[in-house]
Amino acid sequence: xxxxxxxxxxxxxxxxxxxxxxxxxxxxxxxxxxxxxxxxxxxxxxxxxxxxxxxxxxxxxxxxxxxxxxxxxxxxxxxxxxxxxxxxxxxxxxxxxxxxxxxxxxxxxxxxxxxxxxxxxxxxxxxxxxxxxxxxxxxxxxxxxxxxxxxxxxxxxxxxxxxxxxxxxxxxxxxxxxxxxxxxxxxxxxxxxxxxxxxxxxxxxxxxxxxxxxxxxxxxxxxxxxxxxxxxxxxxxxxxxxxxxxxxxxxxxxxxxxxxxxxxxxxxxxxxxxxxxxxxxxxxxxxxxxxxxxxxxxxxxxxxxxx
Length: 307
Known about the structure:
This protein is an alpha+beta fold. It contains seven helices and 17 strands.
């Protein structure tokens, strides 16, 4: 690629939000500067950016960081930002090395990835998210295999879940009540941590799974399971902050200062017992939400910067 576009200078979700609010100039200027490495669709509800990510290789595996490359090791990929009237988000899809990618197109949900030989791969946003959004460490072979399986398959929307009337409200002992929200197919509520409200959601699960999932969530919350996970996130993202997100002349941030500024804002539990923890960054990363991925056994996977 001939250029690198990175989140230190642009809030991609906010560009979409402004465009949908009748203020398209920032998005238009962004596209004028970076096209064909950036593309949006006619509805301006998605924005793609073709870019390089910093990569740390280790024994045939690599961990990709959401920042500009600091050396010769990098991973090509696409940052996918989306926004609707109810909110937005951002995630990354990684691409195999060894190819030269020269441009993007976005038509509705359909994505066109252009390579230096003029050939274009046609796929869609769902395919990119399902197959190329790798967590933690991964191998180049796994990435190439996933890339080779990309297609333009359209996925029919699933039928919304309909819980029994007795399951429209869940009670988590010691935590509180969660109410089913059919639009998102989850139970939602909140509880207080260090004097601040924290949003809790539990994905819908069929009756045989719901009771053990409910008990697991209550157990995790009462045990403050997030505390060691926030510590692990600090170890990972403090390095990123000091290596790539400091202004010129700004002193390095201490671990204690980082921990004081990052605050817990939400926890989402999934039907398989895995979870995502969301934190406010207090502008450490220009307002990006910090997302921590948690495995089914409650163990730390990785953390990254979301929308």
